[in-house]
Amino acid sequence: MAAAQGHLSDGPDDADGEGIPSVFRQAVAGLQGVRLRPEIELDATPPPQRLAPFSYALEAAVVVDDEELADGRLILLHDPAGHEAWGGTFRLVTLIHADLEEEMAEDPLLPEVCWSWLTGALEARRVPYAAISGTVTRASSHYFGGLQEREPSTRIEIRASWSPVRPGPAVPASGQGVPDTAAHLSAWCDLLCQIAGLPPGGAPEAGVVTLPQRRGPQSR
Length: 220
Known about the structure:
Elements: H1 22-31, E1 40-45, E2 54-64, E3 67-83, E4 88-100, H2 102-105, H3 110-124, E5 129-141, E6 153-164, H4 181-196
Antiparallel strand pairs: 1-2, 2-3, 3-4, 4-6, 5-6
Helix pairs in contact: 1-4, 3-4
InterPro entries: DUF3000 (IPR021555)
Protein name: DUF3000 domain-containing protein
């Protein structure tokens, strides 16, 4: 990932084209003004096509001592006509990956814990959201033949989407409210750091559980 640590560049899909709705421009501007932890590398990337009339995508990685501990993608979707399943005109979609230590990989409650980290990150930032859904997948790999020297590995994957709800007064009937995308991005970065095994805000907090950091680079 080419982005410098701790900032978001405009990228190729910077929502500057003609015909872009003002509310979408404002939502993207919110994503571009967030201060990030230095361990996070974040950059804009071309969004997937045909998911919505307007979209903006980010890719991120948590990097410590040149080792990537977790990575993910966050996509902002906007449909001015509204979407029944979204309950509004905006939707956020995410995919996050991280490798696990053996002791965490064997925890039968790991999927539930990881999902609670997502909802907990949003609630900790006090950002309203609706219609959340997703999956948590734990995938184990065992190596054979020419790869048999590698240790078995396990990877966690979180796929989720939710509708950012505009804070404050009720959204007008037209649904043209602008959600606080900066707060949603901050919550998403909190989740990314937590699944990477970093303590919140750079210091441990009582009652907060994170994935143990991996011990040194692993072969892939």
